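Re-run with default settings, no changes from the original entry. Doing this only to confirm the output is reproducible before filing.
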Amino acid sequence: MWQRNFQSAEDYDRSVAHNREHFREIIGVVDPRIGVQAPELLGTLVTSAQVSQGSGYKVYAVSWPVFRSVVADFDGLDAEGLLLQPEGKPVGRVVAIPDADWTPEMLVGLSPGVPPEAQFARRLAENGCQVMIPLLINRADTFSGIPGISMTNEPHREWIYRMAYEVGRHIIGFEVQKVLAAIDWFASENNTQPVRIGVMGYGEGGLLALYSGALDARIDVTVVSGYFQKRDDLWKEPIYRDVWGLVREFGDAELTSLIAPRALIIEASQEPEVAGLPPVTEVHKEGACPNGKLVSPPLNSVQQEVERARPFFSGLKVDGKLQLVVSGGGNGQPGSEEVLKSFLSALGIRTRLWASGNIPRDARPHYDPEPRLHSQFDQLVGFTQALIRKSPDRRKEFWAKADSSSPERWKETTKFYRDYIWEEVIGRLPSPSLPADPRTRLIYDAPKFKGYEVVLDVWPDVFAYGILLIPKDLKPGERRPVVVCQHGLEGRPQDVADPKVDSHFYHHFGASLADEGFVTYSPQNPYIGEDRFRIIQRMGHPLKLALYSFIIGQHEQTLNWLAAQSFVDPERIGFYGLSYGGKTAVRVPPFLDRYALSICSGDFNEWVWKTTNVLTSYSYLLWGEYDMYEFNFANVVNYAELANLMAPRPFMVERGHDDGVGMDEWISLEYAKVRRFYDKMGIPNNTTIEFFNGPHTIHGVGTFEFLRQHLMSPKGASPGSTG
C-alpha cells in the first residue's frame, strides 16, 4: 500500500504519487477546475465590493470560479468569501479556512462569534499576507430538504454528502477544490511577485487544510488547528466526515507523509464541539444520521499522532519542518501567538509578529450572510445533480469492454466488473475463514415439512443463522431445489418460515414454498436493530467495508453448507427477497455463482434517482436510512447493471402498483434495460417482471411460477417428482 523511498525528495515524491492519487479519488477531488482566473469583486450599485479596511489591508467580498458546467442548464460552481489585500506587496499568500460554523467575516472580526485572539486571518493580513477566506457550508439544517415536499434536520453538510457520495464526490472534496482554486490564482500571481503560499485551517477548516496540503505541492506551509489526532474512531464523527476506505491507508499521520518535506505545523487547540443534530421541528422532520459527535482532540492523541508522523520528516532529513504547537494546554483558541510566529517564519517572513490591530468594521449595514450561504449550498446541489444526470454516460464508458454477444463471452468478460464492484463499491472481505461447524435444532413439525434452526460459523465472532425447511416427502437419494427466502428491514427468518406467522409483508412465503415441495432456507441478515446495524456500516466505511461485505460472506458460507447436504441439488439454489431482501437480490446473487436465479421483490428501482433526487417524496435524501449510500455507485452501476450480472441466470422483479418504494414508471424504465439485455443475449425467457395490484408485499403468484419454471426439471414437474 505504501512504498516510501527516502533516497531523495524526488524519489520520495514519486513513491507516494499513487497514494496521493488514491486519496484524491476517495475524497472526490476528481473534476477539472476552470484554471487560473482572478477573483471577481462582488459589489452592487449601492454596496461596494470593499467591505472594510484594517491595519494595513483592505477587505473585499469576492468569488472565484472552481468548475465549469457539466450540463447545459447548469452554470458551474464558484467559491465565495473574503479577500484581505495588503496595502503593500504581499509577504505571503494564505488561504485561511474557518470552521464550518464560522463565517469568513468572523475570522476577520467583522461580525461577532469568534474572539479576537482566534481571528487568525486578520492577524495574518496585519502582518502583510494576502489572505483568501472561503465560505464553508455550515452545520445548520435551514435548506436541507425538498421545499414543498419535506424538510429534514440533516445538517447542510450531510445533505450534500449523501448525494455526492453516490456519485463519487464529497462535501470535503468540493471544499478542497475551492481551496485549490484559490491556490491556482496565488500560483499565477507568483509569476510576477513570488512569495510562499500557505494554508491554515481550524476545525472543519483544519481538515481541509490538511487534505489540501496533502494534495498540492504548491502549498509551502500547512497549519492544522483543532483537528489533527488519531483517526481510528472516525466512525464516531459526523457522517459528513465519512470517507470510503480512508483509515485503511490514511490516518492523519499518513497524510502528513504526503506533505513532507514541506512544512507542517500542528496546533493542538480546542476543536469546535458538536454534541448533536439540529432539533426536529414541525418544519424540519427527523432524517439525519443520529450518531456522530465532535469533541476536542485529547492532547495525548494529538501528540501520539505527531510522533507517528515524525519518521516521514526525519527520513527526508527535514525534522524541523514538522512542528507541534500547544495552545492553552490543548484547549486554547486557534491562531495562538506561537503558531502565527511559526507560520510566518515558515513562510520566510523574518520580521517579528506585529501586535494585534484594531478590529475592523463592516461597511455593509446589517449584512446578512445567509443569502450567500444559500447560494453556495444551491450551487453544490446543482453541480452534484448535474453529475448525477451525467452518470449514465459514465456507466456506459465503464462497461464498454463487457461483451454481451453470447452468455459465454458475457461471463468471461465481466469477471473484472464483478471483482471491481465487489471490491470498490460493496467492499470485499476474504471468504469465510472458519469451518461451518453447523448447529441445528428442530423447531417446526408442520404437516408437509420439518423446520430447523441453523447456526454456522463464518469468521471469528461472525456467524450465520437461519431456518431450514425440509419437505417430508423426500425420497432416499433425492435432491431438491432450494429457495433462499430473504426477509427485509427489521425482519426475522420466522416472518418468512414460520407457518403460524402470517405477516402482511411476507405471508410466510418460505413455508408456502416448502408446502409445494421446495427446500427453503430463510437467513437472518443483519439489517435489524434500528440504528445498531447502521453503526456496523459506519464502522466499516473507513475500512472500505459495508453491511453487504459481511452479508455476502454469510451467504457464501450458507450456500456451501446447503450445497453439501444430501437432499439438496447444488445446481438449483434460487434467491427470493422482499424489500431489504430485494436489495440483497441484486447485491449478493450476482457475485455468488451458486445462486442459480434471483427474484427482487419490493425494491427494484432506478436506484441512483431513488437515492439522490431532489424532486420527490420517494427520495432517500429525506429519510434516516443513511445506510443506502454507496461510494461512486452511480458512475459504476445502477440496478439494471447489477441485474445483468446475473445473466445468463434467470432474474425476476416483483412489483406492487401501490408499493411506496417508488413509481411504476421508474421501475419500468430501469427494468426495460434488463429486458432488452436478456432479449439481445437470446435468453428472453430468463427474465420477467410481474406487476400486481397491491402494496409492499410478497405476492407469490408470478414469482412462484418463475421458481417452478427455472428450478424444476423437467419443466412443469413438482419439486418432489425430480431426482
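Residues 24 and 30 are 7 Å apart (CA to CA). Confidence is low (pLDDT under 50) at residues 714-718.
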